[in-house]
Amino acid sequence: MPTHQLERKDKKRLSGKSNISQKNSALSSLDFGTMEFMKWLISKDTNSGDTWIVVKDYFDNKYVILFDKSILNDVIVAYRDGMPWCMTCNTDDCGHVGFAICLKQDYNRNDQVVF
Questions:
Q1: What is the DSSP string of 71-112?
Q2: Contact 61, 82 (CB under 8 A)
Q3: Which residues pair with residue 94 across a beta bridge?
Q4: pLDDT tens readout for residues 1-57
Q5: 49: DSSP letter
Q6: What are the residue boundaries of the structural domains of the chain, listed by start?
Q7: Which residues contact 7 (CB under 8 A, 6 or more apart)?
Q8: Sign of CA dihedral 62, 53, 112, 57
Q9: pTM for this structure?
Q10: What does each C-alpha distance from 53 to 43, 47, 87 come to in angstroms?
Q11: Can you tell me the distance from the alpha carbon of 65 to that of 59, in angstroms, rounded to the nearest whole number?
Q12: How far is the C-alpha of 75 from the C-alpha of 61, rounded, in Å?
C-alpha cells in the first residue's frame, strides 16, 4: 500500500466529519464554532440570547457541557490528553469543539467562566 493512502486513512480516522454534525447542527465546522463563541461573548454582555450555544457547565481540562439550540440537545465536549473531542458528533472538528477551544482559551485568560 502506498504511503500517501495510509496517511489519508489515518487523517480521516482522526478528524472525519460526523454525519450528525453535518446534517443536523448549524455548527458543522470549527469556524462556525469560533464565530458562535464570539456571538456568545457579545450576548453574554448584552443579555441578547441570540446564539445557538448555551454553556451549561465547564470543568477545566475535563469537559464542557453545551446546549445546542440547532439540535435541541445537550452536547458534551471532553478533553482527552488535552485534546477536545465532541462526544455527540463523535469528532474533533465540529463547531462544538471550536466553541470549546475558544471557551478554554477565554478561561485560561480570565481564570473563570461566567455563563
A1: TTEEEEEEEETTEEEETTTTBSSSHHHHHHHHHHHHHHHHS-
A2: yes
A3: none
A4: 444 444 434 444 444 444 444 455 678 899 999 999 999 988 877 777 788 999 999
A5: -
A6: 3-110
A7: none
A8: negative
A9: 0.74
A10: 11, 14, 16
A11: 9
A12: 16
